[in-house]
Structures are given as structure tokens and as C-alpha cells.
Specification:
By secondary structure, the protein is of the alpha+beta class. The protein has 2 domains: about 150 residues, PurM-like, N-terminal domain (60s Ribosomal Protein L30, Chain: A), CATH 3.30.1330; about 170 residues, PurM-like C-terminal domain (Phosphoribosyl-aminoimidazole Synthetase, Chain A, domain 2, Alpha-Beta Complex), CATH 3.90.650. The chain is about 30% helix and about 25% strand. It has a 7-stranded mixed β-sheet. α1 runs parallel beside α5 and α4 runs parallel beside α5. The longest helix is centred in the middle third of the chain and has 18 residues. The N terminus is likely disordered.
Length: about 350
């Protein structure tokens, strides 16, 4: 691979991770070279310095502000329909950058591995991270590995941090929503939460729903080309779209009304929620962005979104009003209304 020191790949021995792989010695070096350096195939990572280094001039040429974010992933199970913890870690961090208008560029990767974890499963996860990073146009440039005693962690935890550049003229923030704006979602909600329910096998329910986990940087850049004046944007992960909309309403001191009939929800997700007493508004997503745009720009943004695979099912789901301030209201299919509050607790823990 590019920049890799010769003779190091293929040196890892054994089928499982041992404490020696976190000791700082030869076993750890073999793990890093054979699984991470070879798997991520990043020239910055291959130098094996204690930090990644970048040319400031090239960053400044792409925008006038840096964006940074970090997140940790403890999803259970590690593998689920349509994805795994590796894909989730890269897509989630990329999306946290992209919803601020940034062009994602670089990621870090820190792994806490439980003693006894299968090496082949670790390779699968690294391969998924590499494939998702390539799809998102980012590189994993530095990282860290720790191994803990069996029972001290649940198989594998991943921490990622991301760096991106925000182009001049882009100003997206939660306090920018104003009356007359509309709320747009890029597709079906609740798929990730439903996929995790199925993968856990805790209920006597079977479905064919796959996670919606996907990097959204390309879709969001397309949206910004259609409307550089997007007011608010966030990916609806834990807490679902209800949490995101409440954050917008409270920070902008406005009201948001959403239309139940306009919400894109798969029949299978709706049916699962009815059986288990869950609300799809609070189910986690890992490939859904909620955007608030000026009303007069809504059609152009929708048209641009629907031309992208990640936005094929985009829809206007609501509007911004002046009152009742700091509230989200749902217009029901029966002609009534109900308040959509912030989630208290968690419907499904460890979904990301």
C-alpha cells in the first residue's frame, strides 16, 4: 500500500485479539500494520507518526473555516442488516460535519477492543470503514488501539473524530429557522432503529428492513448548490426527527408544525412500531437529514435532492411558524393536533 513500510503486512498471528495486541510491543505493531494500516490504505496513516500532518494552504483554499466533530460508537449488535459498527462510525462522523455545510476531509479512528475478539470480524469492520470512507471522499489518517480484559468491554467500541472545511458564504445553524420556512426530510424515517430491533432478536418479530446508514456529504453539497441559504440542518440519529425538530424550535424560538400524512415511513416500520408501542418520530436514523429552508426555495431543493440516490424519497414534512414558540406540533391524520416533546429516556439503547 501507499507509504507502507515493506514486510509488515501479513504478520498478524492468531485468530483472536489478546492483551499483547495492546501492549505496545511487536504484537501490537503487527496488528496495526496488518489490519489498520493495510486496511485503511491512507498515506498519512502509513507514516506511523503520532499525528497526521496537513498543509494549511490547501485547507484554506477549500474554505474559510475548519469544522471538527467527534463521536463514539457502542452499537449492539456490531453487525446488523445493511451495515455494521464500522460503516456506522464513518458515516455518522461524516454526516455530523456535512450538516454544518462542511466538506468532510479527514477522520481519526480509536478502537477499544475486548480480549478474545475475533480478528476476522475486526478485518470485516475495517473493510467496511474503508469502503464507507472511500464513498464519502474522506481518509482515515490517524488512530489509536487499546485492548481491555475480557468482560471489561462489550466486544468493540469505536471513537472517531472528523475534520472538514466550510466554504465561504455558508452559515447553517440551529437558531436560523424563521416563520415561512419549510422542513424537508430526505426519505424514510426509523429504518435504522427498526433494523437494530430485528438484529437483536429480542422480540418475536421478523422484518426485512435494513439500516439507512449512509454518508450524506454528496447529497448535502447538492442541496447547498441548489440553495446556499439553507437555514438549519442536522442528521436525525438518536432521538429521531422529533429531537432534531425540538432543538430547532427551542434554539430559534419558533414553532414547527409537521404533517403526519407527509411523513415518509415504511409500512414495515410503522407496523413494528404499532406492535411494540414505539413512535417512529423518535426512532434512530443514520442516513437522514432534516433541513429547514426558505419556503420559496423548497421546490428547487427538493428537485436537487430527488436526483441523488440518498434523496430519492425526499419530502416536505412541515413548516415553521411564529407560535406556539419553542414547540413542535404534529397535525394528525385524524384532523387533530398533538405536541411532540423531546424524548425522555431512550426507546432503544445502544443503537449507534
Amino acid at each position: 500500500m501507499s507509504g507502507q513500510q515493506p514486510g509488515r503486512a501479513g504478520k498478524l498471528r492468531g485468530d483472536t485479539i489478546t492483551l499483547a495486541h495492546g501492549s505496545g510491543g511487536k504484537a501490537m505493531r503487527d496488528l496495526i500494520d496488518d489490519v489498520f494500516v493495510a486496511g485503511f490504505d491512507s498515506p498519512e496513516l502509513a507514516t506511523l507518526e503520532d499525528q497526521a500532518r496537513f498543509d494549511l494552504a490547501s485547507l484554506a483554499a477549500q474554505g474559510d473555516r475548519l469544522a471538527m466533530t467527534t463521536d463514539s460508537y457502542v452499537v449492539d449488535p456490531l453487525f446488523f442488516p445493511g451495515g455494521d459498527i464500522g460503516k456506522l462510525a464513518v458515516a455518522g462522523t461524516v454526516n455530523d460535519l456535512a450538516v454544518g455545510g462542511a466538506v468532510p476531509l479527514y477522520l481519526t479512528c480509536g478502537m477499544i477492543i475486548e480480549e478474545g475478539f475475533a480478528v476476522e470480524e475486526l478485518r470485516r469492520i475495517v473493510q467496511a470503514m474503508k469502503a464507507t470512507a472511500d464513498a464519502a471522499g474522506v481518509r482515515i489518517v490517524t488512530g489509536d488501539t487499546k485492548v481491555v480484559h475480557k468482560g471489561a468491554a462489550d466486544k468493540l467500541f469505536i471513537n472517531t473524530a472528523g475534520v472538514g472545511v466550510i466554504p465561504a458564504g455558508i452559515d447553517i445553524a440551529a437558531h436560523h429557522a424563521k416563520p415561512g420556512d419549510v422542513v424537508i426530510c430526505n426519505g424514510y424515517i426509523g429504518d435504522h432503529g427498526a433494523a437494530i430491533v430485528d438484529a437483536r432478536g429480542e422480540y418475536s418479530i421478523e422484518n426485512t428492513i435494513k439500516t439507512d446508514c449512509a454518508p450524506l456529504g454528496g447529497l448535502i453539497q447538492t442541496m447547498l448548490k441548489a440553495c446556499p441559504d439553507i437555514h438549519c440542518m442536522r442528521d436525525a440519529t438518536r432521538g429521531g426527527i422529533a429531537t432534531v425538530l425540538n432543538e430547532f424550535a427551542q434554539t430559534s424560538d419558533c414553532a414547527i408544525r409537521i404533517d403526519e400524512n407527509a411523513l415518509p415511513i415504511r409500512p414495515a416500520v410503522r407496523g413494528m412500531c404499532e406492535i411494540l408501542g414505539l413512535d417512529p418520530l423518535y426512532l434512530a436514523n443514520e442516513g437522514k437529514v432534516i433541513a429547514i429552508v426558505p419556503g420559496e426555495q423548497a421546490e428547487s431543493v427538493l428537485s436537487a435532492m430527488r436526483a441523488c440516490p440518498e434523496g430519492e424519497h425526499s419530502a416536505v414534512i412541515g413548516e415553521v411558524l411564529a407560535a406556539p414558540a419553542q414547540r413542535v406540533v404534529l397535525s394528525t391524520g385524524f384532523g387533530g393536533e398533538r405536541i411532540v416533546d423531546m424524548l425522555v429516556g431512550e426507546q432503544l439503547p445502544r443503537i449507534c
